[in-house]
Design brief:
This protein is an alpha/beta fold and 240 residues long. The protein contains eight helices and nine strands.
């Protein structure tokens, strides 16, 4: 898919990778971007970025809002499921509310938004769905147990969507970043890649037709190691 012919919808676009994607797709010539946030004030700030950007209110756990946005954004041919949440802690410590919160956004939110936009993309002749995943979807860190599980489920769902949507001329892309310098990992001391670099790699991957994007040095090194010996990576991550 050429970004210059894209009309994109990006969930969770008010900060982090989502906001960086708005900037990147504009720079790469996107025709139009629907950028979503959970409040009208944040949506208004997104609209003010550029005349090609329309800010929309969307909580991906709200099915009525999803339906409303899908009815509004009928020209979309690039859907980027970026909205996500993260809770720290092991399954021994996690509450049911934290499990519900992570799965509600990271899995069910992605599921429901995709279901709502498949008819839109199909009516527009096909397109691309991008799901923001994570390295810990492939190998779990105990300190991120609930987040790991929700993203692993989203990875499995991404593969299922890929098979189901191929006949509709809809490509499905999974993105597996490592540590990114965003609010989500604020206070975690480790090397992090700027969100702008992640966004550039995602845009390049979409344009190249990649199915899986490992958008930073940590991700690329991890993937090479995981392909060679996934059990060794599992054991390594289990100590983190």
């Amino acid at each position: 898919m050429q970004i210059s012919t894209a009309t994109a919808l990006i969930t969770g676009a008010n900060r982090g990778i989502g906001h960086a994607l708005v900037t990147r797709l504009l720079a790469d010539g996107a025709a139009r971007i629907y950028a979503t946030a959970r409040t009208s004030a944040e949506a208004d700030k997104l609209t003010a970025i550029d005349k090609r950007v329309t800010g929309l209110v969307l909580d991906v756990t709200d099915t009525a809002q999803i339906a409303s946005v899908a009815a509004r954004a009928k020209d979309v041919n690039l859907l980027i499921n970026n909205a996500g949440v993260l809770d720290f802690g092991s399954f021994l410590d996690a509450s049911r509310a934290q499990v519900d919160r992570n799965f509600g956004t990271n899995f069910y939110g992605t599921l429901e938004v995709t279901k709502a936009f498949v008819p839109v993309l199909e009516a527009n002749g096909g397109g691309t769905v991008v799901n923001m995943l994570t390295l810990v979807a492939l190998a779990s860190m105990p300190g991120l147990s609930v987040y790991n599980a929700s993203k692993a489920a989203a990875w499995s769902m991404t593969q299922s969507w890929r098979a189901s949507l191929a006949s509709k001329n809809i490509k499905v892309v999974g993105v597996f970043p490592g540590a990114v310098d965003t609010d989500m990992l604020a206070g975690v001391e480790m090397p992090k890649t700027p969100a702008a670099e992640i966004a550039r790699a995602i845009s390049d991957g979409i344009a190249s037709g990649d199915e899986d994007v490992f958008p930073d040095p940590m991700a690329a090194a991890f993937y090479d190691q995981w392909k060679k010996d996934h059990k060794a990576v599992e054991h390594q991550f289990a100590t983190m």
